[in-house]
Write a structure and sequence with these properties.
Distance between the termini: 29 Å
Strand content: under 5%
Radius of gyration: 17 Å
Order of helices and strands: HHHHHHH
Number of strands: 0
Number of helices: 7
CATH architecture: Orthogonal Bundle
Structural class: mainly alpha
CATH topology: Arp2/3 complex 21 kDa subunit ARPC3
Amino acid sequence: MFRWALKDVIMVGIASLVFGVIYLGAVHFGLLLGTLLTPFGLAVLANEFIFGVWFMAAAFAGYILRKPGAATITEMIAALLEVFMGNFYGPIIFVSGFVQGIGTEAGFALGKYRRYGWFPLVTGAFGATITSFIWGIIRANFTQLSWQLLCAIFVIRLLSALFFSAFLVKILCDHLTKMGVLNSYPIAHDTLHHTFEKEHQ
């Protein structure tokens, strides 16, 4: 479980690059959404609706590789690439990547990197929501907001995380597994074992 092969490093690199591009696109979409919500006084919630997008690299890598550190490392590299590609928030995003990565990593760690199915993704979504929310309090000074708005931010962010980094990531990974793209990774072995058990019940 702790040994990394070349294919694992390649997967981290590919996932980091792909999601780094997606992350940058989400930043610009968040700006557009913020502009649309400004007349309603809800601009502060704009990024919350898509916040789960920024957890996807960690969830994707963690779910496929099932190795300690895979989620956090991939999330940090994706954040770094996002900065290099033009994220105007700057290097602080790298710290955000670490915070989000360890939150997602917690979901896989709770299952000892062996738990198959929804458990690691859902718990990882909760973990990333909590760690990123705490980081938001420190970085964005959330303490100035009303408790009602804070609750709204947390709930919307959690729902976004569950949709993007749990539901969508699982669908994507399962689809890639069925296509045979991930045959050399632990996720394919788990899927095969799970299918075998269902057929012999």
